[in-house]
Design brief:
- The complex is a heterodimer of chains A (424) and B (250).
- Chain A is mostly helical.
- Chain A has 15 helices and five strands.
- Chain A has a five-stranded mixed sheet with strand order 2-1-3-4-5, with helices on both faces.
- Chain A is elongated and about 90 Å long.
- Chain B is of the alpha/beta class and 250 residues long.
- A six-stranded mixed sheet of chain B has the order 6-7-8-3-9-10, sandwiched between helices. In chain B, strands 2-1-4-5 form a four-stranded antiparallel sheet.
- The chains are: A mainly alpha (424), B alpha/beta (250).
Amino acid sequence: MRQSFSCPSLDAAVLKLSIWKELLHAFRDKHVFIYTFLVPVVLYPLIVIMAFDFISLKEAAREKSVKQIGLAGKLSDYDPAQRKAIDCLFANKDFKRYEPEANTQADLDWLIARGAISGYVTKGKDKQNGFGLAMVINHDLNGIALVAAANESVDKWYDQAVRAAYKQKGLSPFNARPFKVKLQDSAPDQKGIFSLALAFFVFSILYLSLGAAYPAISVSAEESEFFTLDTIRIVPASAWSMMLGKWWSVSAIAFLSAVLNLVSMLAVSVFLSQQAGNLIKGLSLKNEFALPATSYAWLFVAYVALSLTIAACMILTASLCRSVRSAQQWVSIPLSLFIFIPVLSLYPKNILSEQTALVPLMNLVLMVKACVVGEISPPLFYTAMGISLCLAAICLYLAKKILFDMETDPLKLVSYLVRQSKKA
Amino acid sequence: MTLVVNHLKKRFYDPGRGEFFACDDISFEVAKGEIFGLLGPNGAGKTTTLRIISTILKATEGSVTVCGHNVEKEPEAARALIGFLSSTSGLYERLTVTEILQYFGRLCQVDEKTLAERIKRLLSSLQLEPFAKARCGSLSQGTRQKVAIARAIIHEPELMILDEPANGLDVLATQVMHDFVRESKAQGKSIVLSTHIMGEAEKLCDRIGIINSGRLLACGTLDELKQQTGGNSLEEVFISLVQDKNLERS
């Protein structure tokens, strides 16, 4: 007779084995292959291209409207070359000079914040390139497009002369840009209302949710449908280790899915920027993603926490079902929620605060947003992760109860409880 | 005794039927090297009884011990001694035959060297060598059942629980299944076999328990059952017991 042995509640070997099995089984699932690998690499880049086309169209429409541009100081304070460039700018009928003359920079900043002017021209420190002129604009797509249009309007008049001068200096004539762009935020409390980096990160969170859906079904509802759940319930191994193996595998696939999506979108954007000179006129991809290393480190942590939380929620939902088909329908409920939350987080007033840090899942999405706009706040981040991982732990506990301990169909149990409560 | 089932009761709730007992005071024992048949119509409570023995379900009342280990109090120890095989093969569709055997062998803590030897031996004895690297989803029903057998015995359990194992199998696959049962008995393994096929029970079982509506109506060797009911065959014994029970009820 085989010797009896005690089975610890967590067993590293079983955990490792479970992860190996779940990853192998999930990666061979055509649904996982399609939704985790094929779609982010093929479909979503297409959507990105379409989105930029749409933005370009809107931008073209915006260019047609007349912009009020201020001038810091008096025109006589500028040197002749600069004055000529400023004249060129205002010769363009799309730009109107904001009166009166001799505004201070502080006044003009305030006017930008009020939306009275679109930007203002001032002296730049660097006279090496162009005319030593800078244009202060708001840090949004509209503002960036404005500078591009202003540069173009000066280029148009000085085209040949400027390009010749650049060529003479051994520089590419296509780099001739009279205005050096200075970005500023009109509303510092709503920092980074919109940026390409934020859009990319938020979009990849949607994909993280979708990437978790099929693996979650594979590790729970599929096990019920094909009766493999019974076979693992009767092995002398720790159920918690197997459950953790399932959870970590789904989380890893979800994380991978988000990263792949992000890489794919970036690759398409780089391709587009190379094709068009700039992604959107004047918008530098390099600047958009030039985040400090700490931001990237926190982003990584936030994505891991998001993967773990979303995977646990998905596994719980799928474990309520006894067939893959029914799980596909049920999983669409949390999936809709997980798609709605990142979109909601784009709303400018939604920022990570002491209050929003207490809302699970939403807090992690806002943590991503905070990392992208550079508002690193470790205490809030720890709270957000703690709250969301608590939700994940509850989901996982319930899923383990349903998969490994429960004897009847959980949906039947719900109907039983409803009947009992009606009787009562 | 390898298996002792003592006054086992299991209550379920069904929205249509309300509360009911799938097992109602079932008791029997299985000795080492014995094949015990659990014979009954569909819905008699055979599967529920076997699922309680194999620790998938928990009994409402009563107890089950496997080689002295109570399945409720020491489930892990009992599980190490049980091999469970059902008509629904329960195989991972996208894992290969070898991967499944490796997975379950490692879960049952069989050491790597022994596991490799056992996998080789099982693939050979169940004629599964050509399918070793095939994914289970692509296999025929008979081959899948062979893989399920290999999976159930990879840890060489003392007690084999076979829940209608020949369901949906063709003649040749059924023969393989029967040969496996006989071989297991020859190796001194105890077997609990649930079936509703009289011929199968008659051919394989040392003792038979007849179960209907959750109750064990009779238990003994085929001759004892014949004597008890006056029937000439297992079929007559079965019909006589089930009809008597139905008359009692009405």
